[in-house]
Amino acid sequence: MSEGKKRKFHTPEFKAKVALEALRGIKTLNEIGQEFGVHPITVGHWKKELQEQAKTLFEGKRGPTPIAAHREPELLYSEIGKLKVELDW
C-alpha cells in the first residue's frame, strides 16, 4: 500500500489570517497560497467565507435595538385589531 498525502488541518486563526491577506487585494491568490503553503482555490474559499460571515460579526452585541424590531409588534397588533373588527362586523 502506498501512503498518500496527509490532509492538513488549519486553525481558524490561520484561516482568518490568510483570508484577510486575500481581502487586502495586494497579492494574488496564487502568491498568498505560495506564501502560506495553501492551494489558491482554498485561499479563495476562505476569503469568500470571511466575506459572507462578516455581516454576522456584530450580531448579539449590546446597543440599541433597530427601529424595525420595535415597530413590528405594533404593526402585528394593528393588523390583528383590523381583522377582529372585520370578523365581528
UniProtKB/TrEMBL annotation:
Source domain of life: Bacteria
Gene Ontology terms, MF aspect: sequence-specific DNA binding; transposase activity
Alphabetical GO biological process terms: DNA transposition
Organism of origin: Desulfofustis glycolicus DSM 9705
Protein name (record): Transposase
Signal peptide as annotated in the record: none
Entries under InterPro entries matching the protein: Transposase_8, Trp_repressor/repl_initiator
